[in-house]
Structure formats: structure tokens, C-alpha cells
Amino acid sequence: TSRGYETPEHKFFMRATVLASDLLFLMSAFIAFIAYDAKKYNWQTKCVFLVLILLSPPLVLVDHGHFQYNCLMTGLTLWAMYFCIVAALTVKQMALYYSIPFFAFILGKIYLMSGLNSPHIPGSRTLKWLQFAALISQEGVIVLITMAVFFWPWIFSIDQLKLLLERFFPVSRGLYQLKVATFWCASNMVIKWGDIFPAEFLFKLSALFTLGASIPSAYMCGRFPKAKMFKIALFNVSMAFFFFSYHVHEKTILVPLLPFAVCIRHFRYFYVDFTIVATETMFHLFKEDKLTLQYVFYLYLSEKLMRFLNVMWGEKKVYDKANPQSLLNSVMKNSVNIYRKYFRILIYLAILGLKVAEPYVKPPARFPYIYSLGYAILGFGVFGIVWVYSNLKLYCWYKLEMKQQGDKMKKSLGKDQ
């Protein structure tokens, strides 16, 4: 609905625009992605994959129940793997969560195109650096022109530009909103950040934490700018933003959910748990919007579809392919087994406990939001485990790429001799 003008016809029109955005941008992007990334699977698996992503409970319930346009931003971001990242950024400032991996990927691609990665490519090093600088400048000019086109109505007014910057970086709105599954909210039980430190310091601290947590994935993605590295880096960095950036609300989990969805075949049951827990962290929002029935239906449907895909894909045997006998491979394999056999049970027991207790056990007067905090702490724990696992997976791929590159250089030197 809109404030002040809420006729049934206008409500229908607004809801229809969300559905149209879903069809035109998000669905088309996922169809194109599956056609490219899932070639080796049969059409039934591709269809289940598509339906599972498009009917992701958090995305459907927030956009079509709570009413937002996250489908437009996420659709443009998926198309941004081709040409739409600036458009996604102008739709919602949360697309900034994707900016670092895009920058690292483009930088890595330009580095390769310039021939700086190999001494065997003809041309002097000075000319290669000049070509690198020219290509970087070209990309920068394109971004600036595109941004100028989108923000043309506001760029001639300093006051309007200040309002835009305040919208992009809402320092005045606090470290986080309500009870949300972030580092700041979870740690606030021990350290009362807002009471100890001023907002300006917390803004700088959150920026430092976010950048520090993003750099490893961004570096690995830029060092080897390949599609699989880029997709996982998108998830890792957007989760770093979710955990550590300033003023995050519960619906922001939709931002990392998009790259996580396109990496679904690398995570299997981790994706199920992540999606279910993400939905649970927004349960009170859905309850307030009277979406309880829809919430139950989409959770049930997603779980059934994902179970089918888990059977199709099977289990991973080797994580560190660069060195299958490494301690890292052993730790990852044992940790995943423990998670799958034991920790998953604890997750769903915790959800069940919160669901049973909330209607019957009144929270203490001192802690009226204890159940919301419980969902937030559960979310932080599960999201944190998945994030660490994802970072380790990217590191394993990075090690494999380094090994393969070293092998190629040895062969090339052998031929030269």
C-alpha cells in the first residue's frame, strides 16, 4: 500500500508491478542462468532448480506479502553478470553488498586481458600496464556515465545529493534495526555497543570489519576471475556486509540469498537450512503481515523440492582437491559430517522450541523481545557456519587454481628449455 492513497485498484496495481518485475527480471535471469550453468542436468532437475529458487520463502513472502521490490534488485544483479550492476544499485542501495566482488572480478579480467599475468604474451611490460590503465579508465567512465544518467534529476542540487548519500549510508538510523542475525546484534548481549561508542565511531568500525571480512574472497576472485569463484565470492562478501555493515535489518538477508541460490549445487542441505532459518528470522514480520499460512506452505514446498535435488546430487567426497590428504580436507569432511548428522537436528529442535514456547510462555518484563532475539541468535549461528564453510570452499578452489597454474608454468618452462 501507499501512504494516503489506498484504493483497491491502486493496491492491485502496486502488487501487479511486483509480479511483473518478478517475471521480467528475476525469472528471466534465472532461466538464462540455469540454461548456462546447469547444462549437464536433465530438464526435470533444471525445472525443480528453477521452481525452488523462484519460490524461495523469504523472497516470495517479503516481496509479495510484506510488499517490496527485492525481485527487481536481485534480478538486475543476476543480469549484472552481463551488464546491469549499476542499474541494480540505483534500484536499491543494498546492491552495494555486491560491489566489491564485481570490482575484483572486473579488475582480474582486465589484468588477464592486458597480458600482465604471463611473461610469454608478447609486448613490453610498460605497454601492458598502459593497456591495463586504459581498460580500467574505460570501465570507470562507463560506470560514471551510467550513474549520471540514473541520477540526472538530482546531480545539480547539493542538498538532493546529500539526501541520496544519507539514504545510501544511514548513519543516523543506528547500528541495526530490531533483532537481526548480525554480529552487532548477537554480540550486543555482552558488549552494549550503542551505549559505549558514538555512532560515528561505530560506523567506521563496522566499515573496517566489513572490509576486512570481504578482502579474502575479493582477492581470490580477482586472482582467478572465473564464474564459479565469482559466484561464491558474491555470497561470501554479501554475507560479510550482512554480518558487519552499519544499519542492517532482517530483510537484508535476501541480498546474500541470491548468490547462495545460484551456488545451490555446491551447498545442498546447507541451502535448505540457510533458507529455512532466514525465513524464521523474519517470522515476526510475516506474522504481523498475517502471512502465517503462506509462510508454512512455502517452507514445506521448498523442503520437499530440495530433498529431491539432494538425492540427485549426492555427497561430496573430496573438498581440497589440490591436496586430498591435507588437514584442511580432513577438517572440512569431518565438520560437514558432524553438521549433517548432529547439528542440523539441533537447529530444528531450537526452531521447534521457540515455536512451542512463544504462544504459551510469556517473556519476562525485562526482556519483552526475547523470542525475536532467540531467532536472531539462531540465525547468526547458522549463517556464520555456512559463511565459514563457504569461505573454506572458495579457498580450496583457490588452492586448486594455484596448483594448476603452477603445473602449467612448469610445462611451459620445460618446453622452452
The pLDDT mean sits at 79
Number of helices: 19
Distance between the amino and carboxyl termini? 73 Å
Strand content: under 5%
Which structural class best describes the helix and strand composition? Answer: mainly alpha
Runs in which pLDDT lies below 50 for 5 or more consecutive residues are none
Report the count of strand segments: 0
Largest sheet at a glance?
none
Topology pattern, helix = H, strand = E: HHHHHHHHHHHHHHHHHHH
Rg over CA atoms = 23 Å
Shape: globular
Q: Name the helicity range.
A: over 70%
Features:
mainly alpha, 0% strand, 19 helices, 417 residues, single chain
Detailed description of the structure:
By secondary structure, this protein is mostly helical. It contains 19 helices and no strands. Helix 15 runs parallel beside helix 18 (327-360) and helix 15 runs antiparallel to helix 19 (370-416).
In short:
The protein has 417 residues and is an all-alpha fold.
Topology of helices and strands:
Elements: H1 8-37, H2 43-54, H3 57-67, H4 70-79, H5 85-91, H6 99-113, H7 125-150, H8 158-168, H9 183-187, H10 193-196, H11 199-223, H12 227-244, H13 254-262, H14 264-267, H15 269-281, H16 283-288, H17 292-313, H18 327-360, H19 370-416
